Amino acid sequence: MVHPHDLWHDPWTIRILALARGLQQRGHQVQLVHLPRKNPPRHGFLREPQPGDPPCQALRPRQHHIVSNFRLLRELAEPCGLIHLQKCFAATALPLLWISRTLRKPLHYDWDDNETAIARQVEKRGLSRLQVAVYERVLPHFAHTLTYSSQAIQERALRLGFPATRMWHLPVGADTERFHPGAGGKEVLAEYGLDPDRLTILYIGQLEGAAHADLLIQAAPLVLEQIPDAQFLIVGGGEQEAALRRHVKQSPAGGSIHLTGYIAAERIPALTAAADICVACFEDNEATRAKSPLKIAEYLASGKPVVASRVGETLGMLEGCGITVEPGSAPALAEGILTYARDPARRMKDCQAARERALQHFTWDRGVETLLQAYAVCLENVTPTH
User: Fold this and answer.
1) Average pLDDT of the residues in 218-228
2) 272-315 confidence digits (pLDDT tens)
3) CA neighbours closer than 13 Å in the CB half-sphere of residue 171
4) What is the rounded distance in angstroms from the CA atom of residue 104 to the CA atom of residue 125?
5) At the topology level of CATH, where does 186-361 sit?
6) When you count CB atoms within 10 A of the terminal residue's CB, does the N or C end of the chain come out lower?
7) Quick one: which of 312, 295, 285 has its CA closest to 118?
8) Helical (H) or strand (E) element with 276
9) What is the mean pLDDT of residues 17-27?
10) Contact between 262 and 280 (Cβ < 8 Å)
11) CATH 3.40.50.2000 region(s) of the chain?
């Protein structure tokens, strides 16, 4: 199982880690491979390996070690039954396409984001944007099977001619043993400068180039006009954090908005359980339409009422247990928060429905079951799709 990013410093690698751990717990032999950052990132995020994790092999920094990485990947692939690739970046996709062909190893592609659209937003180098676009378009032609995280990605794969019989829906999941309603009490809020007795609205997520936490900062003054004791907690870090802190200082709601930066991963379930309302706000664009938001799965597992922008997978994820609003609109987001703030009975009802929906539809265990179905078909096919 190969990921082109740093498993321990990049928070978005949780998908492949969770699936690898689940496969190993079911008795399968798993080899994780990742491409670590050359230098530790400035944001300071660090995920610790867990006891019993699958073995993990680090490649060498991509700029100067392409040939040695190719040889290492080939050596690791030789004894494996199949190759699992997440994301379409050339540093890992190019050698694995060649290795899959020369060693006749079936290739499974886990397509979890619209990387072309994300690159348009965050990548400044035109050649890099072009490279991502080419690889994302070409890679499905060489894969034997495919899992997709959203309907938008499924539709794109179908337009590229990928057979529907060789693809499976694998949305995000939550660790329901870590994220649950009893994971933490209100007192944990005081550790981050909040008042445990006030209504707490929570946003969790990486504050990278394609994040949309600023919508909550814009919505906060509108909420406070009607619910003066509300407070807002934004958990996460990244390159947008400094700009968001400046935005908070300029906001009339600044005193009620708290940003934590990146915090230890083990603290997040307690903070989620302590919140009253959770938020997942987005704009409507090609990148967000392809999202299967991890934060929503973890909010649901924690038994929280969720207000989310109506884009991509959010409407289906929150069926019967949340409020969806117009994407990209701070007034609409504020109105969704106020709907829950004014109606504690509805909050309680949706809290109960949220946990049940997570257990039924959004766990990593279900994702592993889906992945094993895809692997079974992958192993039966020795030629790519077309």
Assistant:
1) 98
2) 999 999 999 999 999 999 999 999 999 999 999 999 999 999 99
3) 23
4) 35
5) Rossmann fold (3.40.50)
6) C
7) 285
8) none
9) 97
10) no
11) 2-173+364-380, 186-361
